[in-house]
Amino acid sequence: PDRARVSLRLGSRKGAAGAARSSVARRLEYIAQTARQRGVPEENMTVTEDFSRVEDTYQMEAEVCIIFSDFGKMQNVCNLLIEKLGTSVTISPPHFYHTPEAIDTLRRQVCVAAVGNTRQKAQEVCRLFGQSLGKPLLIREEETKEWGGHIDNHLSHSPDSLTLQERIQNATAYASCRVFAVFEIKGKENRRNKLL
């Protein structure tokens, strides 16, 4: 995966509306400042707020959603916020995912690698017969498969108890590609003999 989304939840319940709002606002500003100082762009942070009256008190709740492209930076930000804000903030486990661009790149890389493997195998066969491999005459992508990651013993873990590495593995995308290729075969005297 090339992205991780982390949600941070915080709230306050006070007798006065202003006190509930300001308590949450201070922590929201600290979270945003901490993320910005560590290079998280403003457009990667989304804040939603909910203000309500519960019995004789005012309740302010907020959620900050931060999208990270650097997982080390994500860990640093989350660790610092837990250290500084303690139990006044709840940080969800990261949700790892792929952007459409990353999946497109994976598909292209897998196809190029399959063509490279095909060419290498054809060269080895030609060497066995004392021939040399010429230019490709036809290359066709026949089948592409994609699948998600897995965890070997995933039944013993609940989704919330997965380690960071297990979460990354679980979100990893895999792809395979089968290609059909026809190459020109050249004899020792560099003459076209037959097709492989």
Automatic annotation (TrEMBL):
Q: What is its main location?
A: cytoplasm
User: GO CC terms for this protein?
Assistant: cytoplasm; nucleus
InterPro entries tied to this protein: IRAK1BP1, SIMPL/DUF541
Cellular localisation: Cytoplasm; Nucleus
Instruction: Return one Gene Ontology term, BP aspect.
Output: immune response
Task: Please give the Gene3D superfamilies that the UniProt record associates with this protein.
Answer: Protein of unknown function (DUF541), domain 1 (3.30.110.170), Protein of unknown function (DUF541), domain 2 (3.30.70.2970)
Source species, domain of life: Eukaryota
Q: Which UniProt keywords apply?
A: Cytoplasm, Nucleus
Q: Which family does it belong to?
A: Belongs to the IRAK1BP1 family.
**Entry's PANTHER family?**
INTERLEUKIN-1 RECEPTOR-ASSOCIATED KINASE 1-BINDING PROTEIN 1
Protein name in the entry: IKBP1 protein
Q: Which organism is it from?
A: Cepphus grylle
